[in-house]
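Figure-free illustration: sequence to structure, shown twice.
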Amino acid sequence: MSIEGFSPHDDPLRPFVAYRRLSPLVRPLTERTPMELWEHDTRTLPRALRRYRRQVRDFAERVIRPLALQGDLDPHGDIGQRILQEAGRAGYLSDLLPFPLGSASPRVMLRSLIWQHSIKMEELCAACGGAGLLIGANGLGTMPILLAGRVSQLLRFVVPAYARSRRGQPTLFAFAITEPTGGSDVEETHGAATHRPETVARRVHGGWQLNGRKVFISGGDIADAVTVFAALENEGMASWTCFLVKKGMQGFRCGRNELKMGQRLSSASELIFENMFVPDDHVIGSLRQGWALNRATLNFSRIPVGAIALGIARGAMESAIRFVCRNRLGGKPLIHYQDVQLAVAEMLALTSAMRAMIWQHARTWRPNQAKASMTKVFCSDHAVDVCNIAMDLLGNHGFLHESGVEKAFRDARLTQIYEGTNDINRLAVIEDQAEWLESLIPES
């Protein structure tokens, strides 16, 4: 059935038909095969990433989507664990390292670790933002160990955990920077300069004694190990040091899990440290490297966070498109109405722009702070816009949990907050470009 207002598929005025009458010399320059934008974009990828994107989408559709709505209603049930077991076996909890140390294909990793994980997070979060974060937070917790550059720590802490995950025994890492008295202050240089750290490490025989709290830690309640950032006693944020804290260490416990608006399958936990001993060999990297490891980790993670937002938006868009094609008003499907067509076109344009920005900035192994932050801001803001449009198209149905769109709306809002609020990320753009901007200021 042709959409009302457009010519039939075989009409000679249809562009795909008209192009066939062009000279064979120029036909390769025209688009002659109609296809879904997802497929069109996938075919532009290098072969290894093309195959990878199809694999992750298949996993998300088979494993995550059937459990997404139930998991949102019962986030502390066994659904998250079932998803993690399948993700571990599929290699999505051990893909920061190439095989045989991890599960990543060397051919995929050659293209850029950030690009690989951006593709993964979009596909997972198109099925469920909470499940995507549940899986993705493990990589965030592992990243400081990779960036510290100590092979011995990788072999000791990461590789055995990855092997267990591949056997279907999820062994997870979490990333802990946020404190009750300092959320944005631990993600932005100006605020960090005056912030008084609450989590502090005191030197003791053979190691360090940690005291303090971290809050809103994704997956903190189920993590087997946490990369915790603490200031050295009587020093400020410049002394921040990364410590690897393991579940079961005396003095370490999980406090409350927050009741979240969205992305519920991934917990936001309070972690409490009370005279907790951490041995010297659990210092990640070196003393006072924590601020550098923190900022470098965020630069690696903010583009994939943009991909989380894109995935959530795409999921809402696809639900809305199915709705307007299958539901009728005035005796005909909603898609026949021009105002609906305009709304669908807007969603397609926004998600395509988000993906183009992500893929462009994710191609490098050396992330640029300004590009990482602006990608996160642009994608998370427009993900909320796409979900708004989808809600409008569904009308009253959009408020129903079964639609999936109201869940996507709640999930998308969180992407504007974590990994640095969007205003903090805007300041990170200015910080990255400060020398250029300062050079334009006339001397007084």
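We now fold a second protein in the same way, so the two outputs can be compared directly.
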Amino acid sequence: MDAILFAAIGLAGVIAGAGAVFMLTRSGANSVLRRAEADARRYQDEAEVRARALELDVEKRAIERRDAAEAQLREERRDLNAAERRLEQREAAIERRGEGLERGEQAVRDRTAALERAEREGEALRARIRTDLEQVAGMTGAEARQQLLDELDNELRDETARRVRVMEAAAKSEADARSRKVLATVMQRITSDVTAETTVTVVPIASDELKGRIIGREGRNIRAFEAATGCDLIIDDTPEAVTVSGFDPVRREIARVALARLIQDGRIQPTRIEAAVERARSEVDEMIENAGRQAIVDAEVTGLHPEIVKTLGKLRFRFSYGQNQLRHSIETSWLATALAHELGADVEICRLGGLLHDLGKAVDREMEGTHARLGADIARRFGVPREVVHCIEAHHEEVRPETTEAFIVIVADAISGSRPGARRESAEQYVKRLEALESIANSFDGVEQAFAVQAGREVRIVVRPEAVDDLGASRLARDVSKRIEETMQYPGEIRVTVVRETRATSIAH
């Protein structure tokens, strides 16, 4: 019983404990449920808040996008309105331009009609004038045309005759082909240096302090120097240089040598100046003799009198149009020798005649007479052969040339003096002459370009082919040559060449 009792009591306890546990479990579940419901409500509230915030943000963005779209639309509408206004303005301008074109077309039509009326009136007037002229002249238009053609024929015959004369002269001058070949060969073989002519000589000095010593106290040194040399001493602001001026090249060379020696010595005073000038004169005389001896060696001439050699050496300091006369004499001797070899003349006479042909230029400033006659007298006085003397006195045809050798010397002298680069023309006069030739050619209608070539001996004219035909080119050449003959002075002949060129171009693809 006790066991049953204890068992019953234990079972009751278990039941009671289970009930208590159940009660406690139910109470906890309710509490948890309440907390869950609270959390759910809180989460729901937060979700609603977040959803509302998100909705508000989306709405805000939508509003901003709508505002931006509306602003862009307004901007596009403004641009569209501006484009419409510009289009309207352009249409208005086009309409105005169209009206102007219509007015211009009407003006052109009116002007065309007026020109047609004027042309008809002009034709009627020309007809009346032609009738009146025929009545006044007593001839018909055909007769006047025939008379004009006859005059043109006469002019053309005169032009033809003149051209024939020119061609005859050219044929005579160029008849002997062998002579042309000889001249060309000789001119190509012979060359020489050209020295520019000058009337002043510059003497370098070590420093400008020497200028005061050259001048001397109260100018006594410079006065003594000019009195001893016969040359002017120019002392200016040119740094480290003193200029010696004088027309006589020999005296100028003496002055240069003396001044250089005085500057080198440093002791400049009147007595030393006179001694230096005398010594310089002796040196220059020796230079002249050496130049004469070297000239006869270069020309391969022997047997000349010493006085002729000395006189020939003076040509070292003589110039003509920029050409040194001693070099010119040697070159003329070479040319004459070559021509004599080619033509079968006396070579030695031509050689010596070419060397001595300008001998008189060494003394023509000291004696009266032309240099040809003075040179012939000097050569005759010192036993030069008569044939050579004749070449000297006839080389400028003051005496009529009678021998082949005399003509050869004349030709050699002309070649040496006229070859390109031998002598100088005034640059200003040369340029003015070429400009005048080109301006005369450019003054004619139809000329596209004009060039003065070959040192002004030819005018080359390029014409526009659409403005000048072949006959017009011939007339243009004749008219330009006549204008040059009437308005200009020139030596020799000037050739007028008219070039008319047509070109056709096509491209192959």
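Summary for the second example: Residues 193-197 have pLDDT under 50 and may be disordered.
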